[in-house]
Amino acid sequence: MKRLPFQTARHIIGITDVRTIRDCVKSKLRLTLLTDGGEKTHEGHVDSRSLAFSVWESLACGYLKRYTEDLIHPDDYFFADGYFETDEEIIAGASECDIVGFSGTTSQMPWSLRIAAAIRARNPSCRIFVGGYGPSVSPEAFLKDEVAVPRGPIQGAVVGEGERSWRSIVLSGGVQSGIVYEPPIPDLDSIPFPDRDFIKMERCAAIAKREEGRKVTSIWGNRGCLRRCKFCADGSPKTIYGAPLRERSPLDILAEMRVVHRKYDIEFFKFADAEVNTRPGRIKQLCETFIQHGWDVPWGGNMLVNPMDETDAKMLYAAGCREVWMGLESGSPEVLAHIGKGTNLATIRKAFKITKDAGLLRRSYVLLGTPLESRETIRQTEELIEEVQPDTVSFSILCPYPGTTYYTDEMRGWDWEHADEYGGEANKWRTNFLSHADLVDEQIRLIEKFSGKLSRIIKKKQQLGVIPTSISAPLGIINTNEISLTDRCN
Ligand code: B12
Ligand code: SF4
C-alpha cells in the first residue's frame, strides 16, 4: 500500500498529527460517492452505458475513496452506481450521509441534480458536491441554484482532478462552497491504486464476461493529452487534464495490473487513457517493461495513428496488447487539417497497415459532421475505410459537448442528458454544408454499408433506438463482401 501525501492535511487543517485528524473526521462523517447509470430502458437495470460497452466501472470513485480511506471508517463510506442501484435505493442511502459526491460527464449531470434535490429534501444538512468532466468544463451550470437559493442542491463543484479536492472536502467536513479546485498531483505514482472492491468492480467484470466472453476491467496510465482536437474535451483549452502531460511509470501500471489480474481473474485490460501514446516514445517505454516482466494478459486502448511506427506495433503485440483503438476520423485532408488532431491520410494509412501486419485488432472511430463535412468529404471517408480495412468501425456524429472548441453559448439550453454523439434528436449539430438530418442519413447509410464490421456501440445504440435503423439516402459505393464480422467491439 502506498503512502498518502499528508502535506495536504497539514496545510488545510493546520495541525501535524494525522491520527488526530483521522479520528476527528471518522467520528463525524458518513460519506457517499455516486455515479449515474444512464438511461434505464428495460428490466430496470439496463442502460446506454453498459449496453454500448462492457461496463466501465467508476475508476474515479475508486481513486477518491482510496485517497481518503485513512480518514473515514469503511462502514461509513458508501458507493452507488445508478446502473445497478435504483434511484430510490441511492436516495435512501445517500440521505443518511453527511457528505455526498457525484461523479460524471455533462450527460450524467442532469440525473445528479435530480437525485441531489431528492437527497437534500430528505436531509437538508447534507453537503453535496459534484466532480468529473461535467462540472469541470462548466461548473457554473451546477452552482446557479446556489446563487438563487441559498441552500440549492449542489454546494460545490469540483474542477479538475479530484483526489486532493475530495480530501480537502472530507478533512474540512464539507465546508467549501462554489468552485473547489486543488492543483493536480505531479507524481502519478504517488496516488494509491483505486479501491476496486469499493466500486464493486466484480459486477462490472461479470457483465463483460456475459457480453464479451471475457472478464474486463479498466486501468488508467496517464493524465492529459498533448493534442488539441476541436471536438474533444481533452483537446480544448478548458480541458480537465491540462498540460503538462503526466504519466504513471510502466512499473507502477504493471504492479496494479498484476494485483488486479490475480485478485479478479481479469482476462482483458482496457486503458482509460485519452490516448495511450500521446507522446512519442511512450509505447516503447511501456512495452519494454511489460515484455521484460513477461506480461501476457491481453490489453488494448486508444492510440494515436502518429506517433506509431513498425517497432511500436511489434512491441505492442509482444507486450500483450491485442487491440488498438484508433481515430480514423475522416478521409478528407481538409477535414483532418481542420479538426486539429495532427494526423493526415499518410499517417492513418501507415498506422492501419503496420498494426495489421503486427497482428493487432484495429478498432476505428469515424467522426461525421465537423464543420467542413459535405457529401464529398464523406465519400472520401468511405474510400479510406475501404482502403485501410479496419476490423471494426463506429460512426459518430459530432456532438459539441461543453468543454470542446465547437461548444458555444447557443448550445447552453440543449438537453445534454439526451444529446449523444451517436444519434438522438437532442444533438442539433449541423455542418456548413449538411443539415443534422443529412448527417443522420449519411450515418445510417454508412452503418448499412459496413454492417459486417460495426462496433458494438453502434449495434447497441440501434437496439436502444438512439440510431434509427431505416435509411433514406442512396446506397454507397463500397463492396462489403470481404468484410468480416468482429463482435468484440467498443
Ligand atoms: C472511459 C470513458 C467512458 C466510458 C464510461 C466511463 C464511466 N465509468 O462512466 C464509456 C465508454 C461508457 C463512456 C461513455 C461516454 N462518454 Co466517455 N470517456 C471515458 C474516458 C476515455 C475515460 C474516463 C475515465 O474513466 N477516466 C479515469 C477517471 C479516474 O478519471 P475521471 O473520471 O476524470 O475522474 C477524475 C476527475 O474527473 C475527478 N472526479 C471525477 N468524479 C468526481 C467526483 C467528485 C465528487 C470529485 C470530488 C472529483 C471527481 O477526480 C477523478 C480523479 O482525479 C474519458 C476521457 C478521459 N481521458 O478521461 C471520456 C469522456 C469522459 N467521455 C465523454 C463523453 C462525451 C461520453 C459520452 C457522453 C459519449 C456519448 N456516447 O455520447 C458517453 C456518456 C456516458 C455517460 N453515461 O455519461 C467526454 C466527456 C465530456 C464532457 N463534457 O462531459 C470525455 C471527457 C471524452 C472527451 N475527451 O471528450 N466514456
Ligand atoms: S481526440 Fe484523442 S488526440 Fe484528440 S484531444 Fe481527444 S484524446 Fe487527445
Number of domains: 2
**Residue share in helix:** 25-40%
Instruction: Give the CATH superfamily of the largest domain.
Output: Aldolase class I
Q: What is the average per-residue confidence, as pLDDT, rounded to a whole number?
A: 85
Ligands bound here? cobalamin, iron/sulfur cluster
| CATH architecture grouping of the largest domain | Alpha-Beta Barrel
* Main β sheet profile: 6 strands, parallel
* Beta strand count: 14
User: And the CATH topology of the largest domain?
Assistant: TIM Barrel
Q: What is the count of DSSP helices, taking H or I runs of 4+ residues?
A: 18
- Main CATH class of the largest domain: Alpha Beta
Assign an overall shape: globular
Strand residue percentage: 5-15%
Strand order of the largest sheet: 2-1-3-4-5-6
Distance between the termini: 33 Å
Radius of gyration of CA atoms, rounded to a whole number? 23 Å
Describe the structure.
This protein has helices at 7-13, 18-28, 48-52, 59-68, 87-94, 109-122, 133-137, 140-148, 163-172, 201-212, 250-264, 282-292, 310-318, 333-339, 345-357, 375-388, 436-449, 456-464; strands at residues 31-35, 77-81, 99-103, 127-131, 156-158, 178-180, 216-219, 222-223, 246-247, 268-271, 299-302, 321-329, 361-368, 392-397. It folds into two domains: 7-185, 3-Layer(aba) Sandwich (Rossmann fold), CATH 3.40.50.2300; 214-464, Aldolase class I (TIM Barrel, Alpha-Beta Barrel). The protein is globular, with a radius of gyration of 23 Å. Helix content is 37%, strand content 13%. The strands form three sheets. It has a six-stranded parallel beta sheet, sandwiched between helices. Strands 7-10-11-12-13-14 form a six-stranded parallel beta sheet. It has a two-stranded antiparallel sheet with strand order 8-9. It has 18 helices and 14 strands. It is α/β, with parallel strands linked by helices and 490 residues long. Bound molecules: cobalamin and iron/sulfur cluster. Iron/sulfur cluster binds at residues 225, 227, 229, 232, 234-235, 274-275, 304, 327, 341.
